[in-house]
């Protein structure tokens, strides 16, 4: 009887892990159609939450909960351009945004260099 309860709890937890805005297994969508922005140049040289020195020329991003070192494929919904970034900081501060990208990562996928936000899909690469 105890093993049945354990199995039921494990089964329920497995079901819960698949809920949310996307699956988080490697290569599958994590989030779709979310807003991202990019870091201002004034943050160059500052220490990130992971302890790294921030550089707008690297392909990095800030996320509130993903582990440092997680690689994310970020695809612009409007044009299909994508970039792979590494999570190395916490943020963004604005609740409506999912990621803060480094400027070089943002500029690689945008068509409008004068726009500060994009709608993107996110996939965990590893």
UniProtKB/TrEMBL annotation:
Q: Does the keyword Transferase apply?
A: no
List where in the cell it is found: Cell membrane
Record keyword Lyase present: yes
Show which residues constitute the signal peptide.
Answer: 1-22
Q: Supply the alphabetized keyword list.
A: Cell membrane, Cell wall biogenesis/degradation, Lipoprotein, Lyase, Membrane, Palmitate, Signal
- Origin: domain of life: Bacteria
Q: Which molecular-function annotations from GO does this UniProt entry contain? A: lytic endotransglycosylase activity
Residues of the RlpA-like protein double-psi beta-barrel domain: 35-121
Principal location class: membrane
**GO CC term (a single one):** plasma membrane
What is the E.C. number? Answer: 4.2.2.-
Family, per the entry? Answer: Belongs to the RlpA family.
Q: What is this protein for, i.e. what is its function?
A: Lytic transglycosylase with a strong preference for naked glycan strands that lack stem peptides.
Q: What is this protein called?
A: Probable endolytic peptidoglycan transglycosylase RlpA
């Amino acid at each position: 009887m105890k093993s049945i309860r354990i199995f039921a709890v494990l089964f329920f937890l497995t079901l819960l892990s698949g809920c949310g805005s996307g699956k988080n297994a490697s290569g599958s969508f994590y989030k779709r159609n979310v807003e991202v922005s990019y870091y201002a140049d004034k943050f160059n040289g500052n220490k990130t939450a992971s302890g790294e020195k921030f550089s707008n020329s690297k392909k990095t991003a800030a996320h509130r909960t993903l582990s440092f070192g997680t690689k994310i494929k970020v695809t612009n919904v409007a044009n299909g351009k994508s970039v792979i970034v590494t999570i190395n900081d916490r943020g963004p501060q604005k609740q409506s945004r999912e990621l803060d990208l480094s400027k070089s990562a943002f500029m690689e996928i945008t068509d409008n260099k004068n726009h500060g936000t994009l709608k993107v899909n996110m996939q965990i690469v590893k």
